[in-house]
Every structure is written in structure tokens, then in C-alpha cells.
Write a structure and sequence with these properties.
Blueprint (H helix, E strand, L loop, with lengths): L4 E10 L2 E7 L9 E2 L2 E3 L6 H13 L3 E12 L4 E10 L12 E7 L13 H12 L5 H21 L2 E4 L5 E5 L1
Parallel strand pairs: 1-6
Antiparallel strand pairs: 1-2, 1-4, 2-3, 2-7, 5-6, 8-9
Length: 174
């Protein structure tokens, strides 16, 4: 029995847009679009593989946010699993460094304007509900800053406080 090899795909989301990458290799895939990513190495967590692959292929610093439910067969023994991902503050803009010759940020209205690889079509469809709920980079950064402010304020006051997702204090304990 063949061992399944997982290929991770990144639904990289930023400012309400999804990043699509046009393949430059191998020849049978060249010119078609995909969610960037690659194979999970032995002993590597899929989320770590995604971060590594996006750094190698696009030159970006990211984090995996949420697994998109589903698994899509590629040629045996490979299967595609997708995670939403976001650029971390301070990351460079994505560039097509490896296996791609063009990148395009797509809005929801433009999502089907590119010729997706056949195996990526159902993965992109499955990503759509996650896309509309993903925080953009500015919102995520504001949440992190608000949480840090609440923690600093609590330390100064000698108590603890927690922040809600919108940056408001949920409560304070002495």
C-alpha cells in the first residue's frame, strides 16, 4: 500500500484578496494557476511546511491560520490539503521566486478570472467561506496591539485583564 504524501496549499489572504500563483514548471502545468505551496517533508508539521514553502516560493513571512476542510487527490500518492494563511507584519511583498512566473491578488469578483489547475478548483471553492471571515492584516495587527495595551495596563494596575477580539477589555481581576 502506498503511503500518502501531503502537499500543502496556501490560501494567502490579504486585504480581502487571495493570492494566485501561475506555474512556470513543469511544462504540463505551466501557465495554469494554483494556490502556492508544496510537499510536507518527513517529520514536518503541515503548517510548518506551508510557512517554509511560501518563504521559498514567494519570499514572504507568513503564518498558517486555519485548515480548510477537505482533501483533494493529486497524482498518486499525493493529496492536497489547504490552509488559510496571512502575511506577518514586516514581511516583504510576495514575488514569484520558484516554480512561478506571475502572481495575482484576486478579489472575490475576480476569483474565476484565472485558469486554475484542475485539482485546485475544488480547493479554491472550499476556501471561499473562510476567505470572507479571515481578518485582514491591519485588523490582525490592531487586535495584537490592543491586547498588548490591555496587558500593559493590567500590569501597571497590579491586576490582570483580558481583551476581546475587537480590542475592548472583557474584564479585570485584582
Amino acid at each position: 500500500m502506498d503511503e500518502t504524501i501531503v502537499v500543502v496549499g496556501g490560501a494567502l489572504l490579504c486585504d480581502g484578496r487571495l493570492l494566485a500563483a501561475r506555474r512556470s514548471a513543469p511544462p504540463e502545468l505551466a501557465g495554469r494557476w494554483e494556490l502556492p505551496g508544496g510537499k510536507v517533508e518527513a517529520g514536518e508539521a503541515p503548517e510548518a511546511a506551508l510557512v517554509r514553502e511560501l518563504r521559498e516560493e514567494l519570499g514572504v513571512v507568513t503564518e498558517a491560520v486555519e485548515r480548510v476542510p477537505g482533501e483533494w487527490p493529486l497524482r498518486a500518492p499525493y493529496v492536497l490539503r489547504v490552509w488559510t494563511a496571512r502575511l506577518l507584519p514586516g514581511s516583504d511583498d510576495p514575488e514569484p521566486l520558484e516554480d512561478h512566473d506571475e502572481l495575482r491578488w484576486l478579489t472575490p469578483d475576480e476569483i474565476w478570472d484565472v485558469d486554475w489547475l484542475d485539482q485546485d478548483v475544488p480547493a479554491v471553492r472550499a476556501t471561499l467561506p473562510h476567505w470572507t471571515t479571515a481578518p485582514n492584516e491591519a485588523e490582525a495587527e490592531a487586535e495584537t496591539e490592543a491586547e498588548a495595551e490591555v496587558e500593559a495596563e493590567a500590569e501597571t494596575a497590579g491586576g490582570t485583564a483580558t481583551a476581546t477580539g475587537d480590542g475592548h477589555r472583557a474584564g479585570r481581576r485584582p
